[in-house]
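User: Show me a protein chain along with its predicted structure.
Assistant: Here is one chain, sequence first, then structure tokens.
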Amino acid sequence: MPGLPTKDALIAWIRDNPEQAGKRDIARAFGLKGTERVELKHMLRELQEAGEIERRRRKVRPAGALPPVTVLRVVSVDDQGMILARPSTWDSTETPPVIEILPRKRDALGKNDLVLAKLTLRPDGSYEARPIKKLDQDGRRMLGVFRAGRRGGRIAPVEKKASREWTIPASETGDAKDGELVEAIAIDGPAGRGLPRGRIVARHGDPEASGQISLIAMVQHGIALDFPPEVVEEAEAAVPVDLRDREDLRDLPLITIDPPDARDHDDAVCAFADDDPQNPDGHVVWVSIADVAHYVRPGSALDAEARERGNSTYFPDRVSPMLPEELSADLCSLVEGQDRPCMAVRMVLDRDGNKVGHRFTRGLMRSPASLDYASVQGAVDGEDNGIAPEIVTDVLRPLYAAHSAAHKARERRQPLDLDLPERQIRLADDGSVGSIDHRDRMDAHRLIEEFMILANVAAAETLEARNARLVYRVHEEPNPEKLDALRETVESIGLTLARGQVLKTRHLNHLLKAAYGTDAAETVAMSVLRSQTQAYYAPQNMGHFGLSLPRYAHFTSPIRRYADLIVHRALISALGLGDDGLSRQEIAALPATAEHISQTERRSMEAERDTVDRYVASFMADREGGEFEGMIAGVSRAGLFVRLDETGADGLIPIRSLGSDYFHHDRESQTLTGERSGAVLTLGQRVTVRLIEATPITGGLILELLLLEGSPLSRGASRRGSPKRKSPRGKIKKSTRRRR
């Protein structure tokens, strides 16, 4: 390859040989000697000044090119196993390239994983990567509040369990300001005072500004903030559906009943008295569900993103939807007065609530009314609340009659009857917490819940009868260790859970009923809840213990759960309802998909819970020093977790604040026992506490025990006062409060 190359040939060679692109390597490759090497030097300088190449150390590469070995962050993994990533750090103002990772069999990569990879430039200018090593991310990324210092600063984490701060060198602050919420990644190098070092990679502003509490949870748990452009483009291109081959259900009075602040409507119901003489006093119930499968097709960008998200995540001030609003709040939402495509099931109940038949159809519906639970319940109870009389007479009363029959079947089935209060955070216009209430539980809630359960059972039964593949909603029975802990707890308050029997939900319901109305009611309910396993999705059927059902699948919420979309597609394929059913590739990927959406569901639950904790701490921050009534809801080596009556908030009484006595922790019996005093602290005991510290940024509440069951803790414990801590987080809280 003799002679000085053209500029295009030189750039092409540099691109194709990233590991050899030093000046000597180039000269050797083109056979350049003497003055030609000088001319090469000038040519490289001209290309660099023109922005065509860039120099890194002693090597050059095309502008914007990546080094041959770099750290990538996985951005998506589709159901066919394609893994896409972007560089973990990117200095250019251009959009970072998307890189396909070609994993080895032993590599198990998921979204947000970091991987050290060797890059190869393809002829079309794109990259492919082969993993060298998956990087351990534990402690590799932090969300926290930046505190500026003379030589950079520090970051205090927002996560309760993360106690260590990070030090940020002056060159790595990213121009972050004191008190800002930031994201940082760990970097190598010597740490100041033994603390890890980090680099700030994103700034999110004032941590106490409106909307920041839910943003913290989304960033912390890796929940998507926005949809990729190609997903939005597909959603915006969607158009309304006409009747065509669908069953016309527009004459059915299919109403939606949701919370008043519902952001989408994916289920509608109606009921009639059955006119079949073979079913005296029976009922016909229709459950109609948004036909998301029509709009979200396998292989589309919409489908890949919906699978990646797994489900919608709901916060007091916003929602991170599984689908863009063009679908979730419009074309897929069963909006009042609008034609909407649906998947519907017609179910026949006998007078005792037994489902004696059902059929599925793909239809077009038009809801005559979108109602909320409180209004429906009030109208049925006789209130004049603006609901049209014909809706009450012709739609609501038949629904309640059918529910009355279905309730009989439910009572015979005896699902687990855990009716625990749910906190509801109401926000003021400025985004602050206006109030914290408990949601009322009405017959309107139970009606919708029971009809959705019946529809979900019908879906599982239909697919099993057709030998079709699907994902089940699985809830396994409690394991022996948890049952032993439950027995020990209830026996301590005079109740029994017999041994040697096959556990049924009716046994647990008997416990709950025996404790109802007593001081131990909440303790028993919480102990039963703790004994339960976590529900998940699986392609194998293992029943649903909590609902006391042999088979169960989620069918009724495809706008917000990917599992339901899979079941819809399975029904479409099994019943021949269209060409957009479950594909072979999806069927092969069902185990991986079920595991993935189980994980995304848990992620959303944690993010929602963390957000509520932070809102509650924000609400309580101005009440430090106040006294509150509560109950011991948890016992650990760290201390006592107390649930406050007024807000349902959980706070910690650190074990060190209980006095000079040494407390033994018994994990099985959930107790702390004083070595000298003999004082026993356990679940369900009533306490009076003082709020010592509320930290909105972490959602943490620190409490001091004042009274146990109405009396001071035994003097044998030599209880000491618990002065307010001067922790770094306390300083952060005060500082950020001044920024309001």
